[in-house]
Amino acid sequence: MEENHRLVGKLIYLTHTRHELCYSVHVLAQFMQNPTHSQWKAALRVVRYLKNCPGQGIFLRAGLPMTLEAYCDTNWASYSISRRSLTAYVIFLGGLPISWKTKKQATVSRSSTEAEYRAMASTTCEILWLKGLLTSLGFEHTKSVPLHCDSQAALHIANNPVFHECTKHIEIDCHFVRNEITRGTIAPVKVHTSSQLADILTKALGRQQFQSLLRKFGISNLHAPT
Fold this sequence. Notes:
Number of helices: 7
Helix content: 40-55%
Mean pLDDT: 89
Distance between the termini: 42 Å
Strand order of the largest sheet: 4-3-2-5-6
Shape: globular
Low-confidence stretches: none
Number of strands: 7
Radius of gyration: 18 Å
InterPro entries: DNA/RNA_pol_sf (IPR043502)
Order of helices and strands: HHHEEEEHEHHEHE
Protein name: Copia protein
């Protein structure tokens, strides 16, 4: 068990620079208190993936525009025991990812729309923090940050100033997101599911889709032939 804890702990550390590990490591971390042989084998599979691409990472180029862009997504009721949903977001600066997270939602969402809206609220909080950080560094970000979401229903709630019966239990998140839309902090945008970059943080993907999203993230392999 101790060996398993050490390995998963190291993998958690790597997620700070290897965002594509977030979902897999998040799942592994759920079993740290009572690990099984299957979980250990899954952890070793992640290690083999890393061994095959040691030079892969985010290549930061000079002269990039100081503009933010965000994507958020959820995996609704993905936990079979608690039925809580998984929230994920990724925020880009100049087309390259600088902030990302995969996290279990604190409460049970009654619908996929509710789960998506909670993800929008979490992402908006991170956007506010990043804009403040950029300001403290001397880069004033005055433009609205595009917040890409693939849920049309969640976008409708965000852009509709009228509260309904179905939104009263997420009223605080509704007020918060709409307030930031009015202030010009964010601008919610509909994105097709196939172009939802946060998908890589919320679920297991096939090889083709996984590699496609990696390329869209601007990931480079220093050891790849040129």
